[in-house]
């Protein structure tokens, strides 16, 4: 392709512009100025080649077969004109906030328990709740159990990241736990219901990883709720109806993980793969705090 170029004829009192055709790689041409303007009389052809000025110095590199490694290493540095850095090419990944949610009865607690057993530097944030303690639960491990008055005091003091009224009882996430453990490099795992996940999405945006946990089918999900035997028939009906509706929120999460009956180990490995993939991203998620 031939591109137009412009040649300039400069005179003391006039300037003329003419259009010519030339090699597309030559955008400028040498021009001659009037003797009265010697200070700007400098042809472009005398401009030094910029690439040549940045060429590394010529250094004799010894034979790869005969030279020892330190000698060859130093010769390569000298030839390139700079020292090789021993700093990590990839910075240490930032701690993640992993929000795990899903309908009732899909095994969120079992998944988190197994994840903590197989993965280091994971901190499960213990949720505060005003509901009564169930058989087998431990205060401070499964939940921080408290009265509604105590819970509302936390709300008043702005000590909760989010909270909600769920089935007549309050649940909320203490802020300080998250700050303390993230400062130590721990990944944070939050277990919340669907309502809590929606609230956290508004608060945290893309700074957290949102994982939706489901059973392999709607029928299996209902059977798990029946098998828990922790509800009256009235509350069981409410939980089943709510769970069916909550399945519609799957599209608002980053990942979906199926917790199939008898395949908890595979479910945990899938979640680990999600965490590893997030940490290997070139663009890390922004820090939450």
Describe the structure.
By secondary structure, this protein is of the alpha/beta class. The chain has 3 domains: 1-44, no CATH class; 56-87, no CATH class; 97-279, P-loop containing nucleotide triphosphate hydrolases (Rossmann fold), CATH 3.40.50.300. It is built from 9 helices and 11 strands. It has helices spanning 50-53, 69-80, 108-118, 148-156, 175-182, 194-204, 218-228, 233-246, 264-279; strands spanning 3-10, 15-22, 97-101, 122-124, 127-129, 143-145, 160-166, 169-174, 187-191, 209-214, 255-258. The strands form 3 sheets. The protein has a 5-stranded parallel beta sheet, sandwiched between helices. A 4-stranded mixed beta sheet has the order 6-5-8-7. A two-stranded antiparallel sheet has the order 1-2. A hairpin with a 2-residue loop joins strand 7 and strand 8 (169-174). Helix 3 packs across helix 9 (264-279) and helix 7 runs antiparallel to helix 8 (233-246). The two termini are 56 Å apart.
Q: How does CATH name the architecture of the largest domain? A: 3-Layer(aba) Sandwich
Counting structural domains, the number is 3
CATH superfamily of the largest domain: P-loop containing nucleotide triphosphate hydrolases
Number of helices: 9
Structural category is: alpha/beta
Low-confidence parts lasting 5 or more residues at pLDDT below 50? 1-34, 37-46
Give the CATH topology of the largest domain.
Rossmann fold
């Amino acid at each position: 392709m031939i591109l137009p170029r412009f040649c300039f004829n400069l005179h003391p009192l006039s300037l003329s512009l003419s259009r010519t055709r030339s090699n597309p790689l030559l955008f400028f041409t040498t021009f001659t100025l009037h003797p009265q303007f010697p200070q700007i009389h400098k042809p472009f052809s005398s401009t030094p080649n910029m690439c040549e000025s940045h060429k590394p110095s010529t250094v004799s590199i010894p034979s790869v077969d005969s030279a020892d490694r330190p000698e060859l290493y130093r010769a390569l540095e000298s030839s390139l004109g700079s020292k090789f850095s021993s700093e990590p090419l990839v910075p240490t990944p930032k701690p993640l906030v992993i929000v795990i949610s899903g309908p009732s009865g899909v095994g969120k607690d079992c998944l988190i328990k197994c994840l903590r057993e197989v993965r280091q530097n994971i901190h499960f944030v213990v949720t505060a709740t005003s509901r009564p303690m169930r058989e087998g639960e431990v205060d401070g491990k499964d939940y921080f159990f408290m009265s509604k008055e105590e819970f509302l005091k936390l709300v008043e003091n702005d000590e909760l990241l989010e909270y909600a009224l769920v089935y007549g009882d309050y649940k909320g996430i203490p802020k300080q736990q998250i700050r303390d453990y993230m400062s130590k490099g721990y990944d944070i795992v939050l277990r919340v219901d669907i309502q809590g996940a929606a609230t956290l999405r508004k608060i945290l945006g893309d700074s957290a990883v949102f994982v939706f946990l489901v059973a392999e089918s709607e029928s299996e999900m209902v059977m798990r709720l029946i098998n828990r035997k922790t509800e009256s028939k009235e509350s069981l009906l409410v939980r089943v109806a709510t769970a069916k509706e909550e399945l519609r929120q799957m599209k608002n999460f980053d990942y979906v993980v199926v917790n199939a009956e008898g395949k908890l180990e595979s479910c945990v490995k899938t979640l680990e793969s999600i965490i590893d993939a997030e940490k290997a991203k070139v663009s890390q998620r922004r820090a939450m705090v």
